[in-house]
Amino acid sequence: MRKLIIAGNWKMNAGAASEATGLAKGVLAKYGQSDAVDIVFCPPFTALREVSAVIQGSKIALGGQNMYPKAGGAFTGEISPLFLKDCGCAYVILGHSERRTYFKESNEFINEKVKFAFENGLIPILCIGETEQEREAGKTEAVVEDHLRGGLAGLTPEQVKSMIIAYEPVWAIGTGKTATPEDAQSVHAFARGLIAKLYDDSVARTVRIQYGGSVKADNAKELLGQPDIDGALVGGAALKADSFNGIIDNSGAV
Protein backbone atom coordinates (compact mmCIF):
# COMPACT_ATOMS: atom_id res chain seq x y z
CA MET A 1 0.00 0.00 0.00
CA ARG A 2 1.51 3.31 -1.08
CA LYS A 3 1.33 6.06 1.52
CA LEU A 4 -0.34 9.26 0.36
CA ILE A 5 1.89 12.31 0.01
CA ILE A 6 0.31 15.76 0.07
CA ALA A 7 2.64 18.63 -0.79
CA GLY A 8 1.90 22.33 -0.77
CA ASN A 9 3.57 24.33 -3.55
CA TRP A 10 3.30 27.91 -2.29
CA LYS A 11 4.82 29.25 -5.53
CA MET A 12 5.68 32.98 -5.32
CA ASN A 13 3.41 33.51 -2.32
CA ALA A 14 3.74 33.60 1.48
CA GLY A 15 7.40 34.60 1.26
CA ALA A 16 7.31 36.99 4.21
CA ALA A 17 8.47 35.32 7.42
CA SER A 18 5.34 36.09 9.43
CA GLU A 19 2.98 34.84 6.72
CA ALA A 20 5.02 31.71 6.03
CA THR A 21 5.40 30.72 9.67
CA GLY A 22 1.73 31.41 10.39
CA LEU A 23 0.69 29.14 7.54
CA ALA A 24 3.09 26.41 8.64
CA LYS A 25 1.92 26.62 12.26
CA GLY A 26 -1.70 26.28 11.19
CA VAL A 27 -1.02 22.88 9.62
CA LEU A 28 1.50 21.86 12.25
CA ALA A 29 -1.05 22.29 15.04
CA LYS A 30 -3.34 19.68 13.50
CA TYR A 31 -1.10 17.33 11.58
CA GLY A 32 2.44 17.92 12.80
CA GLN A 33 2.76 14.49 14.33
CA SER A 34 0.51 12.56 11.97
CA ASP A 35 1.78 9.37 10.36
CA ALA A 36 -1.32 8.97 8.21
CA VAL A 37 0.06 10.86 5.21
CA ASP A 38 3.38 12.40 4.24
CA ILE A 39 3.11 16.19 4.28
CA VAL A 40 5.56 18.51 2.50
CA PHE A 41 5.74 22.31 2.51
CA CYS A 42 7.41 23.97 -0.48
CA PRO A 43 7.63 27.69 0.38
CA PRO A 44 9.57 30.36 -1.50
CA PHE A 45 13.34 30.27 -0.98
CA THR A 46 13.17 33.35 1.27
CA ALA A 47 11.01 31.48 3.80
CA LEU A 48 12.76 28.10 3.88
CA ARG A 49 14.76 28.68 7.06
CA GLU A 50 11.81 30.14 8.97
CA VAL A 51 9.49 27.31 7.97
CA SER A 52 12.21 24.75 8.70
CA ALA A 53 12.49 26.10 12.25
CA VAL A 54 8.72 25.87 12.74
CA ILE A 55 8.43 22.24 11.62
CA GLN A 56 11.62 20.99 13.26
CA GLY A 57 10.88 17.84 15.25
CA SER A 58 7.56 17.26 13.47
CA LYS A 59 6.56 14.74 10.80
CA ILE A 60 6.21 17.49 8.17
CA ALA A 61 8.98 17.73 5.56
CA LEU A 62 10.36 20.71 3.65
CA GLY A 63 10.90 21.05 -0.08
CA GLY A 64 12.35 23.56 -2.52
CA GLN A 65 10.42 24.75 -5.57
CA ASN A 66 13.38 24.46 -7.95
CA MET A 67 17.16 24.09 -8.07
CA TYR A 68 20.06 24.47 -10.47
CA PRO A 69 22.09 21.34 -11.29
CA LYS A 70 25.38 22.65 -9.92
CA ALA A 71 26.79 22.74 -6.41
CA GLY A 72 27.81 26.39 -6.79
CA GLY A 73 29.40 28.90 -9.12
CA ALA A 74 28.64 31.89 -11.31
CA PHE A 75 24.93 31.24 -11.82
CA THR A 76 23.30 34.51 -10.80
CA GLY A 77 19.80 34.12 -9.41
CA GLU A 78 19.93 30.33 -9.11
CA ILE A 79 19.96 28.10 -6.04
CA SER A 80 22.12 25.08 -5.34
CA PRO A 81 20.74 21.81 -3.95
CA LEU A 82 23.37 22.17 -1.24
CA PHE A 83 21.68 25.39 -0.13
CA LEU A 84 18.32 23.62 -0.05
CA LYS A 85 19.77 20.84 2.07
CA ASP A 86 21.33 23.39 4.42
CA CYS A 87 17.88 24.95 4.89
CA GLY A 88 16.44 21.55 5.86
CA CYS A 89 14.89 20.45 2.56
CA ALA A 90 14.26 16.80 1.85
CA TYR A 91 12.37 17.31 -1.43
CA VAL A 92 12.57 19.53 -4.52
CA ILE A 93 9.96 20.20 -7.20
CA LEU A 94 11.39 19.84 -10.71
CA GLY A 95 9.89 20.24 -14.16
CA HIS A 96 6.82 22.15 -13.03
CA SER A 97 4.75 23.32 -15.97
CA GLU A 98 5.48 26.93 -15.06
CA ARG A 99 9.20 26.22 -15.35
CA ARG A 100 8.66 24.42 -18.65
CA THR A 101 6.47 27.23 -20.02
CA TYR A 102 7.93 30.48 -18.67
CA PHE A 103 11.57 29.45 -18.47
CA LYS A 104 11.63 27.07 -21.44
CA GLU A 105 13.06 24.15 -19.47
CA SER A 106 13.57 21.06 -21.61
CA ASN A 107 13.23 17.41 -20.68
CA GLU A 108 17.02 17.12 -20.91
CA PHE A 109 17.61 19.98 -18.48
CA ILE A 110 14.97 18.70 -16.08
CA ASN A 111 16.53 15.24 -16.22
CA GLU A 112 19.91 16.78 -15.38
CA LYS A 113 18.29 18.40 -12.35
CA VAL A 114 16.62 15.15 -11.27
CA LYS A 115 19.94 13.30 -11.37
CA PHE A 116 21.76 16.08 -9.52
CA ALA A 117 19.05 16.20 -6.87
CA PHE A 118 19.59 12.50 -6.19
CA GLU A 119 23.36 13.00 -6.10
CA ASN A 120 22.87 15.59 -3.38
CA GLY A 121 20.38 13.74 -1.21
CA LEU A 122 17.14 15.40 -2.30
CA ILE A 123 13.98 13.55 -3.37
CA PRO A 124 12.72 14.90 -6.70
CA ILE A 125 9.05 15.65 -7.28
CA LEU A 126 8.99 15.36 -11.07
CA CYS A 127 6.06 17.19 -12.68
CA ILE A 128 4.48 16.02 -15.92
CA GLY A 129 1.33 17.03 -17.77
CA GLU A 130 -0.34 18.36 -20.89
CA THR A 131 -1.70 21.76 -21.89
CA GLU A 132 -5.35 22.33 -22.79
CA GLN A 133 -4.44 22.46 -26.48
CA GLU A 134 -2.58 19.16 -26.24
CA ARG A 135 -5.50 17.60 -24.39
CA GLU A 136 -8.02 18.77 -26.98
CA ALA A 137 -5.76 17.39 -29.72
CA GLY A 138 -5.77 13.96 -28.06
CA LYS A 139 -2.09 14.18 -27.15
CA THR A 140 -2.32 13.67 -23.37
CA GLU A 141 -0.68 10.24 -23.33
CA ALA A 142 1.98 11.28 -25.84
CA VAL A 143 2.94 14.28 -23.70
CA VAL A 144 2.96 12.27 -20.49
CA GLU A 145 5.14 9.63 -22.14
CA ASP A 146 7.51 12.29 -23.47
CA HIS A 147 7.86 13.93 -20.05
CA LEU A 148 8.32 10.62 -18.27
CA ARG A 149 10.84 9.15 -20.69
CA GLY A 150 12.78 12.41 -20.68
CA GLY A 151 12.65 13.00 -16.95
CA LEU A 152 13.51 9.43 -15.94
CA ALA A 153 16.28 8.85 -18.49
CA GLY A 154 19.31 7.18 -16.93
CA LEU A 155 17.75 6.71 -13.49
CA THR A 156 18.08 3.44 -11.61
CA PRO A 157 15.05 1.42 -10.52
CA GLU A 158 15.77 2.28 -6.88
CA GLN A 159 15.89 5.98 -7.66
CA VAL A 160 12.55 5.85 -9.45
CA LYS A 161 10.99 3.93 -6.57
CA SER A 162 12.05 6.63 -4.12
CA MET A 163 11.01 9.71 -6.11
CA ILE A 164 7.61 11.34 -6.53
CA ILE A 165 5.89 11.95 -9.86
CA ALA A 166 3.24 14.65 -10.02
CA TYR A 167 0.74 14.56 -12.87
CA GLU A 168 -0.49 18.11 -13.35
CA PRO A 169 -2.71 18.80 -16.34
CA VAL A 170 -1.64 22.36 -17.16
CA TRP A 171 -5.21 23.38 -18.02
CA ALA A 172 -6.28 22.61 -14.43
CA ILE A 173 -3.54 24.52 -12.57
CA GLY A 174 -4.94 27.60 -10.89
CA THR A 175 -7.94 27.69 -13.22
CA GLY A 176 -10.56 26.10 -10.99
CA LYS A 177 -10.92 23.34 -13.59
CA THR A 178 -10.20 19.85 -12.36
CA ALA A 179 -9.86 16.59 -14.21
CA THR A 180 -12.64 14.20 -13.29
CA PRO A 181 -11.49 11.48 -10.90
CA GLU A 182 -11.93 8.98 -13.73
CA ASP A 183 -9.88 11.03 -16.20
CA ALA A 184 -7.14 11.64 -13.64
CA GLN A 185 -7.07 7.94 -12.76
CA SER A 186 -6.79 7.02 -16.44
CA VAL A 187 -3.68 9.17 -16.91
CA HIS A 188 -2.14 7.96 -13.64
CA ALA A 189 -2.72 4.36 -14.70
CA PHE A 190 -1.14 5.09 -18.08
CA ALA A 191 1.90 6.65 -16.39
CA ARG A 192 2.26 3.69 -14.04
CA GLY A 193 1.97 1.28 -16.94
CA LEU A 194 4.68 3.13 -18.83
CA ILE A 195 6.98 2.97 -15.80
CA ALA A 196 6.38 -0.79 -15.69
CA LYS A 197 7.53 -0.98 -19.32
CA LEU A 198 10.56 1.23 -18.72
CA TYR A 199 11.54 -0.63 -15.55
CA ASP A 200 9.39 -3.41 -14.09
CA ASP A 201 6.19 -4.05 -12.15
CA SER A 202 7.94 -3.66 -8.81
CA VAL A 203 9.05 -0.13 -9.64
CA ALA A 204 5.62 0.76 -11.02
CA ARG A 205 3.84 -0.55 -7.94
CA THR A 206 6.17 1.33 -5.58
CA VAL A 207 6.54 4.80 -7.10
CA ARG A 208 4.05 7.38 -5.86
CA ILE A 209 2.19 9.50 -8.41
CA GLN A 210 0.44 12.63 -7.14
CA TYR A 211 -2.30 14.59 -8.84
CA GLY A 212 -2.11 18.38 -9.08
CA GLY A 213 -4.60 20.77 -10.58
CA SER A 214 -7.10 22.76 -8.49
CA VAL A 215 -7.23 20.14 -5.73
CA LYS A 216 -9.50 21.31 -2.90
CA ALA A 217 -11.10 19.87 0.21
CA ASP A 218 -14.35 19.21 -1.65
CA ASN A 219 -12.80 17.13 -4.44
CA ALA A 220 -9.94 15.51 -2.53
CA LYS A 221 -11.88 12.43 -1.41
CA GLU A 222 -12.86 11.36 -4.91
CA LEU A 223 -9.49 12.16 -6.46
CA LEU A 224 -7.35 10.57 -3.75
CA GLY A 225 -9.64 7.56 -3.58
CA GLN A 226 -8.55 6.46 -7.07
CA PRO A 227 -6.28 3.38 -7.07
CA ASP A 228 -3.35 4.99 -8.90
CA ILE A 229 -3.50 8.47 -7.32
CA ASP A 230 -1.12 8.61 -4.38
CA GLY A 231 -1.58 12.14 -3.12
CA ALA A 232 -1.74 15.73 -4.27
CA LEU A 233 0.55 18.58 -5.22
CA VAL A 234 -1.52 21.52 -4.04
CA GLY A 235 -1.22 25.11 -5.23
CA GLY A 236 -3.78 27.74 -4.26
CA ALA A 237 -5.46 25.65 -1.56
CA ALA A 238 -2.08 25.26 0.17
CA LEU A 239 -1.93 28.98 0.97
CA LYS A 240 -4.39 28.79 3.85
CA ALA A 241 -3.99 26.29 6.65
CA ASP A 242 -7.72 25.53 6.84
CA SER A 243 -8.02 24.65 3.15
CA PHE A 244 -4.81 22.59 3.16
CA ASN A 245 -5.93 20.80 6.32
CA GLY A 246 -9.29 20.19 4.63
CA ILE A 247 -7.56 18.27 1.83
CA ILE A 248 -5.78 16.10 4.40
CA ASP A 249 -9.06 15.69 6.32
CA ASN A 250 -10.74 14.37 3.17
CA SER A 251 -7.83 12.31 1.88
CA GLY A 252 -9.32 9.09 3.20
CA ALA A 253 -6.14 8.36 5.14
CA VAL A 254 -6.94 10.17 8.41
- Average pLDDT: 96
Beta-strand portion reads 5-15%
Structural class: alpha/beta
Helicity range: 40-55%
CATH architecture: Alpha-Beta Barrel
- Could you describe the largest sheet, including whether it forms a barrel? 8 strands, parallel
H/E element sequence: EHEHEHEHHEHHHEHHEHEH
Biggest sheet, strands in spatial order? 7-6-5-4-3-2-1-8
The top level CATH class name: Alpha Beta
CATH 4th-level superfamily:
Aldolase class I
Q: According to CATH, what is the topology? A: TIM Barrel
Cα-to-Cα separation, first versus last residue:
15 Å
Q: Domains counted in the coordinates: how many?
A: 1
The radius of gyration is 17 Å
Write the layout of secondary structure elements.
Blueprint: E1 5-9, H1 17-31, E2 38-42, H2 48-55, E3 61-64, H3 81-86, E4 91-94, H4 97-102, H5 107-119, E5 123-128, H6 132-136, H7 140-152, H8 157-162, E6 164-167, H9 181-198, H10 201-206, E7 208-211, H11 217-224, E8 231-234, H12 241-249
Parallel strand pairs: 1-2, 1-8, 2-3, 3-4, 4-5, 5-6, 6-7
Helix pairs in contact: 1-2, 1-12, 5-7, 7-9, 11-12
